[in-house]
Amino acid sequence: MNKKSIIFILFNIIFLISCMANNVEPDLNYLLPTESKYMILLDKDSKKMIIDKCSSELKKVKKENVFSINDLRNYYVYEEKIGSDEFIWFISPLFDKGLPVPRHQIILLRKESDSYKLLSKYYSQIIWGEIHLYLQFNNILIVKGEDKAKGFILFCNRANIQFKTSNDNDGYNIKKCKGQFVGSVSGHYFRFSDEPQSFNLTEDFSIYPSEEWNSIIIEASDYLWDEKAPLKYALCNAFDGNPATSFVENTEDDLIQIDIWLGKAVDKMAIINGYAQNESLYFNNNRVKNVGGYFLLQDNVLEYQYILCRGTNINFTENYIGEKYNDTCIADINFFYNGSWLFGDINE
User: Fold this and answer.
1) What is the pLDDT of residue 167?
2) Under a CB-based contact definition with an 8 Å cutoff, are residues 77 and 45 in contact?
3) Are strands 329-337 and 268-273 parallel, antiparallel or unpaired?
4) CB 181 within 8 A of CB 227
């Protein structure tokens, strides 16, 4: 075999490997951990049918120059059903393979009659800022009721970063607290009961649906940022109704604060304390002991506890100390508001 033939074969092998890398299915546990177990990848024929049904909605958005849409045939398409509600996820092939945090474009639509309505579009990862740089990792949680979805929360999870040198390719460091990486988080909860019949498309639509769709703002203390999986301990875990996942703080005093800007009082709060996946994780980590200085939570309870509090700006002021770690964890939190539970339904 001559040199030219060897070079030709090597070139084709490299090309095939490159094509295969570009067509690797996204890691849903990494991108959308709260939704991954509900999402089903559509086959080729179903994908084509969905693209046809969604095309008019996405063309309308593209015409308004809100954001560009690449060829959807290259995207992975997933269906998610929550009771009577049906959602469609478009997730792009991998962007910027060299980055330590993979980057995808994600589009979420909700079925209405025989068509689909765009809810949100975002990039999973982006580095932004001029003086203070942040690594921002976005994700969506669909809030699930017993028979349908209640809405969705778009979370912006951020890690404060500093480049190692003037050369970006040399990488960056993430801010630390107690020797662990720090993440900050905020969320916007869009309830379908508050959705306007129509709204104008703006540039902000690339991240949020619209300022006309009034959202509930959610903020919380800094959390434990896992560099390889930024959502592993993120705030979305506190609203997914799953006791096996937890929001884990990373603050100097190991205390947690969660603020939910409702503007009105609630009747009570429900909380699953600690890292409630199992007893070992529960006792190894800190758990909340006192809420607001007035309400004492029982320990060794891996189920919902209820507090007759009125506010949604909650300070957790004292902890039960973990046997192995000093991280304070909350598995789930909810509020009874206007006759129903705000984040999913609870069978008391």
Assistant:
1) 66
2) no
3) antiparallel
4) yes
> What is the DSSP pairing of strand 172-174 with strand 149-163?
antiparallel
Q: Kindly state the percentage of the chain with pLDDT values over 70.
A: 82
DSSP 103: B
pLDDT tens, residue by residue, 62-85: 655 445 566 788 899 999 999 999
Identify whether the C-beta of residue 266 lies closer than 8 Å to the C-beta of residue 336.
yes
DSSP state at residue 170 = G
* Nearest by Cα to 201 from 86, 113, 115, 121: 121
Residue 57, phi then psi, degrees to nearest 5:
-65, -45
pTM, two decimal places: 0.88
pLDDT band of residue 168 (cuts 50, 70, 90) is: low
328: amino acid identity, one letter? T
Q: Which of 147, 80, 83, 169 is nearest to 119 (CA)?
A: 80
On whether the CB atoms of residues 155 and 138 are closer than 8 A, the answer is yes
Query: Tokens standing for 343?
Result: 């984040």
Phi and psi of 70, rounded to 5°?
A: -80, 180
Model confidence pLDDT, tens digit, residues 19-52: 444 567 899 999 999 999 999 999 999 999 999 9
- pLDDT reported for residue 88: 96
Are 236 and 143 in contact, with CB atoms under 8 Å apart?
Answer: no
User: CA–CA separation, 268 vs 339, rounded Å?
Assistant: 11
Residue 180: other Cβ atoms inside 10 A: 16
Contact 69, 54 (CB under 8 A): no
Q: Which residue has the tokens 């339904």?
A: 345
User: Hey, is 223 helix, strand or coil?
Assistant: strand
The string of DSSP codes covering 51-68 is HHHHHHHHHHHHHTTS--
Is residue 249 within 8 A of residue 221, CB to CB? The reply is yes
